[in-house]
Write a structure and sequence with these properties.
Elements (H helix, E strand, L loop, with lengths): L4 H13 L2 H8 L3 H15 L4 E2 L5 E2 L1 H21 L11 E6 L1 H13 L5 E6 L6 H5 L5 E4 L8 E15 L1 H7 L6 H6 L2 E3 L6 H10 L7 E3 L3 H9 L5 E4 H10 L3 E2 L5 E11 L7 H14 L8
Parallel strand pairs: 3-4, 3-5, 7-8
Antiparallel strand pairs: 1-2, 5-11, 6-9, 6-10, 6-11
Length: 297
């Protein structure tokens, strides 16, 4: 069943921008034309693709078709060699990446490939590969070395984390000692319900599975600020808090015992040729900024 590319691009624009009017403006047509294109596409596939609301949201099939439209645009641009040359708008790439990588080292790798528009899905490194399994992204930065179905995987290195807290927090909760009981009593920071870094570090230094009460704070820089203000303790990338540790504004817990988190780049095998420049850039930046896996603890 052949699908009209203009219908697919209309669907993708609606879901990306959140409304039929915005999609019409982006594509240079009337809202009525956008509506007719989506209606024709829905009739073609025999299913609803968009929940009309504020914002417009995809059905499961609508999301898959919008992703398919973006993949086609990227593959066509790569085949025609017109990316970044003003012949057509740069294609869009949807990726799943962890927030801490975005906050520390990933942006320069993305910026080195300027002929793409990026649409990032922020997720924990332990679960970002699920986006690949579901076909919702073309590539992902994950903590898994086992490739998702239909994907190639590249080892990048490890992002080093240290458990940090303010000096006042340490004096209040961990004087004279940091142990299982004091860790249970001290407020902990977690990024989301998926975040297991703090629990993994606790097991590493105590050998116990503890579940302290925690604040949930989904922001890499907010995590640092929360530690600085004494809201709780948490695992922060060393590259984010090195200056604060050196100045004494933060203290490293557990004799600075680190937690090194391996990272891998997984990319859809079908899309790999079109993403070769990005894969090369990510691997180059990772070699410069991440800890080699053979030196990770």
């Amino acid at each position: 069943m052949a699908l009209d590319p203009t219908h697919l691009s209309a669907l993708a624009a609606i879901l990306r921008l959140g409304s039929f009017d915005a999609a019409a403006a982006a594509l240079g047509v009337t809202p009525s034309a956008i509506s007719q294109r989506v209606k024709a596409l829905e009739e073609k596939v025999g299913a609803t693709l968009v929940h009309r609301g504020q914002p417009a949201q995809a059905t499961a099939l609508g999301a898959r078709l919008a992703k398919h439209a973006e993949d086609i645009a990227l593959l066509e641009a790569q085949a025609l060699g017109n990316r970044g040359m003003g012949v057509a708008p740069a294609p869009r790439l949807t990726l799943a990446v962890p927030a801490d990588s975005l906050a520390t080292w990933l942006i320069p790798a993305l910026a080195a490939v300027p002929d793409l528009f990026y649409d990032l899905r922020i997720d924990d490194q332990d679960t970002s590969h699920d986006w690949l399994r579901n076909g919702a992204v073309s590539a992902a930065l994950t903590g898994h070395d086992r490739a998702a179905p239909g994907c190639d995987v590249f080892a990048l290195g490890a992002l080093r984390y240290v458990a940090t807290a303010s000096p006042a927090f340490v004096a209040r909760y961990f004087d004279p000692d940091l142990n299982g009981q004091t860790l249970m009593d001290a407020p902990m920071l977690t990024y989301s319900e998926k975040d297991q870094l703090q629990n993994r570090w606790i097991r590493k230094i105590t050998g116990k599975k503890l579940l302290p009460h925690s604040h949930q704070l989904p922001s890499s820089h907010g995590f640092v600020d929360a530690a600085l203000c004494g809201l709780g303790w948490g695992m922060n990338p060393l590259s984010l808090v090195g200056g604060d540790l050196a100045s004494g504004r933060l203290v490293a817990l557990g004799n600075m015992t680190p937690l090194d988190v391996p990272l891998y780049w997984q990319v859809s095998r079908v899309m790999a040729p079109a993403l070769s420049d990005l894969t090369r850039s990510i691997r180059q930046i990772a070699r410069k900024t991440l800890l080699p896996l053979d030196k990770a603890g």
